[in-house]
Design a protein that fits this description.
Blueprint (H helix, E strand, L loop, with lengths): L8 H11 L5 H5 L2 E8 L9 E6 L12 H9 L9 E3 L13 H6 L34 E3 L11 H7 L3 H6 L1 H4 L11 H7 L9 H11 L2 E3 L2 E6 L12 E5 L2 E5 L15 H30 L5 H29 L8 H15 L6 E5 L15 H21 L11 E4 L5 E6 L10 E5 L15 E8 L2 E14 L9 E12 L5 E12 L2 E6 L3 E2 L1
Parallel strand pairs: 1-6, 2-3, 3-4, 8-9, 9-10, 10-12
Antiparallel strand pairs: 2-15, 5-6, 7-8, 11-12, 11-14, 13-14, 15-16, 16-17, 16-18
């Protein structure tokens, strides 16, 4: 049985456009750009500023531990010095359901929210009073969609999981964070973070809202004004804003991660059979692990920790199955979000032609380069890399030598891989050469291991009538699960990035880690990276 499902790319695009009333006549008439916003905090012109990056966070406390909250507490001393927090996706696990926002987002990040502070009476926090669809941030948390934020629950599983206790116990290895609801094709995320214009019940309400909150101006027209402590909504599932002379581009990689189809050749058929065998093998492995889970007692601490590790393995198997099924189902006319990719290309070109812009940061969920064991071989990784490469090649062709040997983008920030990693691309033969890539996907969900093949990432390229294999990236830092049994270490993390004045700017990346080892937490700041 499939325990999670994912909407098709055209459905994701269509539903999200409905929710923000994409190109509604009232919006077009006002010349509003629905992909831009202004972060109006009174400090956006300061060339020296800092921000934090988290990702893959939205999980529950378990067995007395709450890694996500541990990371949030590690972030708090930096809150006043950082202008905002970028979130690289997977805000809520396992499916992005509204029922988990209070426990899996609002509670852990309560100090970042208006009304989440400690009350003087009875010394109680008030996050449970905050509706998930009416959050106002004191310190902005600016997310992008992860795959789990789009996931849904098949009706049959909802009926089983929500019925009798014996059935829930039978399915407990999958039911740990899956209840009655799913994301409803990303609707919960949209209500939590986007300016959900669909909620305006009349033309008058829509007109008033647009006049009240779309008061900022950029080179592309009027846009939404994001005001910390007052109105904290995002304009769209992908968007851009400028801060301290840096252009930030937030993308929805869930709509351009579709794998390329297998070729209709002898080699393609061999690949298909190999994928089908792999799918069948891991399905059998899944059953074996589930049977083992059913024999473990969650009330016994040692067995509970083993149970949690096995559950994490099951969710990892789910991801591999989904990736395989995407490859097998891919066809020649696979849906690709060309509208978003073309938008990114044009906005990067405009950014390079704007004198006041001194740097560019792009952040999205699926990493194009990664050495976390479960992600490098995924077809989605290659798909995202190829589509990003297409965009950057187009920008480079347009701007010529304007970048003066600088990379087209100064930083790429991702999640999806449950680790903290810094990679740098080599000379790839394309405009994605010499990129600095940071993966901050270890901020709450169980960390995973680095692949055994090493830090050098190789890619196959066509060469005449044959192929060539060459290095495309190198991993300079990896922080993930390590050790085994009683020596296992689980490091959870976030990064703080200090942006310094100058053109090009200097970025100081400061990694912070909260590590769980033998039932105790150990916090540390790692050596800074200068980019």
């Amino acid at each position: 049985m499939r325990f999670i499902s994912e909407p098709q790319i055209p459905v994701k695009i269509h539903k999200m456009k409905e929710r923000v009333r994409w190109l509604h006549p009232s919006i077009v008439r006002r010349g509003i750009d629905q992909t831009s916003m202004v972060l109006d905090d009174g400090n956006s012109n300061n060339p020296d500023f800092s921000f934090m990056v988290i990702g893959d966070t939205g999980t529950r406390p378990y067995y007395g531990y709450h890694p996500q909250r541990q990371v949030a507490e590690l972030m708090l001393p930096h809150q006043d010095e950082c202008s905002f927090v970028l979130h690289t996706g997977d805000v809520i696990y396992v499916v992005g359901s509204q029922e988990y926002y209070p426990q899996n987002f609002i509670e852990p990040y309560r100090e970042f929210l208006q009304g989440g502070e400690l009350t003087s009476q009875r010394l109680r926090y008030r996050p449970k009073r905050i509706p998930y669809d009416n959050m106002v941030f004191k310190t902005p948390i600016l997310p992008v969609l992860g795959n789990h934020d789009y996931y849904d629950v098949p009706l049959m599983y909802r009926l089983l999981a929500g019925s009798t206790l014996p059935l829930r116990r039978l399915l407990r290895y999958k039911d740990i964070e899956i209840g009655w609801h799913g994301s409803y094709q990303g609707d919960a995320y949209a209500r939590a973070f986007l300016d959900y214009l669909k909620a305006a019940k009349s033309k008058e309400q829509l007109e008033y809202h647009l006049e009240e909150h779309y008061t900022a101006k950029t080179d592309t027209g009027r846009c939404l004004r994001y005001e910390p402590g007052r109105f904290t909504r995002l304009p769209n599932r992908y968007y851009t804003f400028r801060y301290g002379g840096i252009d930030f581009f937030a993308l929805d990689s869930n709509t351009f991660n579709e794998p390329s189809p297998l070729p209709a050749t002898k080699e393609g058929e061999a690949s298909r059979r190999k994928l089908e065998k792999r799918r069948d093998d891991i399905a059998r492995e899944e059953v074996e692990i589930a049977q083992l889970c059913d024999r473990l007692n969650p009330d016994n601490l040692a067995q509970a920790e083993q149970l949690d590790a096995l559950r994490a393995k099951l969710y990892q198997i789910d991801e591999v199955k989904i990736d395989i099924e995407k490859q097998l189902a891919a066809h020649k006319n696979a849906a690709i979000d060309l509208e978003q990719l073309e938008w990114l290309k044009q906005r990067l070109i405009e950014s390079w032609n704007t004198d006041e812009v001194r740097g560019r940061i792009v952040y999205f969920h699926h990493p194009p380069y990664v050495t976390e064991a479960s992600k490098w071989h995924q077809a989605q990784t290659l798909a995202v890399r190829h589509r990003l490469r297409w965009v950057l090649d187009g920008v480079a062709q347009d701007i010529g030598f304007m970048n003066q040997e600088r990379p087209i983008v100064d930083l790429i920030l991702n999640g999806h891989a449950h680790c903290l990693e810094y990679l740098r691309t080599t000379e790839t033969g394309h405009a994605d050469s010499h990129l600095n890539c940071i993966i901050s996907g270890g901020s709450g969900r169980r960390p995973r291991r680095q692949r055994e093949e090493g830090t050098e990432l190789m890619e196959t390229f066509p060469a005449g009538k044959g192929i060539s294999i060459r290095q495309v990236a190198d991993s300079m830092l990896f922080v993930g699960c390590n050790g085994y049994d009683e020596l296992k270490r689980l490091p959870y993390s976030f990064v703080r990035i200090d942006v310094k004045d100058g053109n090009p700017p200097k970025f100081i990346v400061r990694p912070f880690v909260a590590e769980l080892f033998q039932g105790e937490w150990y916090n540390r700041e790692m050596e800074s990276l200068v980019i």
